[in-house]
Amino acid sequence: MMQQSFQSIYERLYDYYGPQNWWPADTPFEMMIGSILVQNTNWRNVDKALSQLRPHLKPELIHEMPVDELAQIIRSSGYFNIKAKRIKAFMNWFKLYNDDVGEIKKKDKKQLRYELLKINGIGRETADVILLYAFDKAIFVVDAYARRIFYRIGFDMPAAYDGFRMEVEKELPNDLELFNEYHALLVQHGKNHCKSSPLCNGCPLNAICEQRLT
DNA sequence: TTCCCGAAGT
DNA sequence: ACTTCCGGAA
Length: 214
What we know:
Layout: H1 5-17, H2 28-37, H3 43-53, H4 59-64, H5 67-73, H6 80-95, H7 101-105, H8 109-118, H9 124-133, H10 144-153, H11 161-169, H12 176-192
Helix pairs in contact: 1-12, 2-9, 5-6, 8-9, 10-12
This protein binds a DNA duplex through helix 3, helix 6, helix 9, helix 10 and helix 12.
């Protein structure tokens, strides 16, 4: 594998799509709720659920809300019964810090990741997007898009989540803005060109991709 | 019918 | 490793 490959892919995507300024949420709290809602779900459906939830989108109100009521409000995001429980589990952890994002941000990345992964419903990917976009920790998010894009390019990536993540991280500077933009750009690219049925015509990665069709 | 920025249960 | 959870748009 070429050296600087992950860096050059980032640059190609950045040049093509421009800065993404993610995550699309008004507050860190909304971002964290959204990260649970978007698990294996189209963002359009998550956006609908967040619109329904927005009047209640304050920690105190979610704490008070019965889980069944929460489930109905987030219905359009799919898996709503499970996701309502997961949000509640997350809230119980959030409460330990008095619902204070600033307090949590003081903790170091490794410890924080460990804590997040103990929450029922927070797996590696969700933990990492929360670390990155709510708590400002530099980390590479391995999602379905990243796997698909790098696999199609022709990289021999590890199947395991953390193996994949560290393979990318070891070639990149430890820069928060870089990881922030990189994940956003991969998502953008996965939606616009590198879809399950790829649209290779005009793809910004054609020059370096093995799977290019046209 | 397919696919969608997964995670837990078995 | 396989199944379950699930609505909504294409």
